Amino acid sequence: MDYYKPEQLEQWDKQYVWHPFTQMRQWQKEKPLIIAKGEGSYLYDLEGNKYLDGISSLWVTVHGHRKKEINRAIIEQLDQLAHSTLLGQANIPSTLLARKLVEITPEGLNKVFYSESGSTAVEIGLKIAYQYWQQRGEEKYKTKRKFVSLANAYHGDTIGSVSVGGINLFHKIFAGLLFETVNAPSPYCYRCPLHLNRESCTMDCVREMESLLADHHHEIAGVVIEPLVQGAAGMLVAPEGYLAGVRELCTRFDVLLIADEVAVGFGRTGKMFACAHENVKPDIMCLAKGITGGYLPLAATMVTDEIYQAFLGEIDECRTFYHGHTYTGNPVACAAALANLELFARDQLIAGLQEKIAFFSADLKRFMELQHVGDVRQKGLMAGIEIVGNKAAKEPFAIKYNIPHRIVLEARKNGLIIRPLDNVIVLMPILSMSLAELKRLLDITYAAIRKVTEEEA
Ligand code: PLP
């Protein structure tokens, strides 16, 4: 690639690029961080400054940047075939990967439908669930056309996935475009919508779900859920047993459980899939992010044989699932995913994670000592630190102080990339980080939160 001066690239970025989920006026005022290179747990900007990647490049990187085995698998596949369509054809990596995904995901998920992002994996899950009930045969199931979605949920930004989302900021402006859902409360224990707390928790959120399903099951196709952790809402960790409770209710009321493992899948919670913590077998499972270890866009929606059967029939019965994208099942992305999964096995990554998770969890406890940290939530190698202006009242700082963004900039000055989600500082270390790197991540974050919040106090 030609060499361009950093100032030139910065100017062109501001002139031409519209960044996702970004306050562009603020972006225009600041010096953009342009990442030029990655290596292991680190990213490097145009000037060669080095940053620890504390968010796994938006929750995707598993074995580190520039992992030679994944790079090699991509190059080898490019030497064979960059792309061919899955419409009426097959290719080798997508076949092998589907077989592998069926082997490692919870029992019963035997069919794989590919796409390219977490949003599309969820969109496809919704469409499959909807069509499934229409084609089940019995008339009584034809009324199952709605979904239960949770407050604070995030499932992506296509119209269907926003419809089942519950974050007002992303939802409200598109209200006229979205389909109606039946809403269940979020298991947000720090600000429990049912006025309980962790100590007094009697899992009334499961009981709420029970009464919703009891009243509405005849019109509900599925419950869409982020297993164990609502990530984008600020790492809201559900009480133990919540997921298993919802599974039991879905079975009892003949409703599909759609588990969105886009963020929590591939080792993030300390098991390969979050559902495994409560031995839950979903009917539909959505995967993306870590599936290629952070190398190429790929997603998968997995379903049971029972669901798949409803799409089989004679040609004139028109039971086909009419959905698919140009790049569905791209062989290069599938080759990257296969290499990623081989490394999980070769490096015994999940077993090795346990010591790191224990350290991460123990070291995070000290954050609660900070005057402006209201709550610290953690599951596996994911954590959310909720910043408050007033700890006793659980009140956030006024928006005008822009505290979360300032914390992120302060951490960056000290060589760490993290991101805020509303008032929550989110940590998503790369799974292959060493204990020393995890310690550095936590130390810089701690110091940045303390400095910025105490300046304001
Ligand atoms: N589902 C969950 C649980 C997510 O956390 C995300 C993204 O953060 C998505 C879906 C959407 O994934 P993508 O950004 O790849 O479309």
TrEMBL record:
PROSITE patterns named among the record's database cross-references: AA_TRANSFER_CLASS_3
Binding, pyridoxal 5'-phosphate: G118, S119, D260, H325, T326
Superkingdom, taxonomy of origin: Bacteria
Coiled coil, from the record: none
Modified positions (N6-(pyridoxal phosphate)lysine) in chain numbering: K289
Catalysed reactions, as listed in the record: (8S)-8-amino-7-oxononanoate + S-adenosyl-L-methionine = S-adenosyl-4-methylsulfanyl-2-oxobutanoate + (7R,8S)-7,8-diammoniononanoate
Residues given in the record as substrate binding sites: Y154, K289, G324, R419
Key words of the record: Aminotransferase, Biotin biosynthesis, Cytoplasm, Pyridoxal phosphate, S-adenosyl-L-methionine, Transferase
Cofactor(s) the protein requires to work: pyridoxal 5'-phosphate
Intracellular or extracellular location(s): Cytoplasm
Pathway(s): Cofactor biosynthesis; biotin biosynthesis; 7,8-diaminononanoate from 8-amino-7-oxononanoate (SAM route): step 1/1
E.C. number(s) listed in UniProt: 2.6.1.62
Pfam family, one: Aminotran_3
GO CC terms in record: cytoplasm
Site for Participates in the substrate recognition with KAPA and in a stacking interaction with the adenine ring of SAM, residues: F21
Keyword Isomerase: no
Any one GO biological process: biotin biosynthetic process
Presence of keyword Cytoplasm: yes
Family matches, as HAMAP family: BioA
Subunit structure: Homodimer.
Family: Belongs to the class-III pyridoxal-phosphate-dependent aminotransferase family. BioA subfamily.
Name of the protein described by the UniProt record: Adenosylmethionine-8-amino-7-oxononanoate aminotransferase
Source species of the chain: Desulfotruncus arcticus DSM 17038
Organism taxonomic ancestry: Bacteria, Bacillati, Bacillota, Clostridia, Eubacteriales
Gene name in the database record: bioA
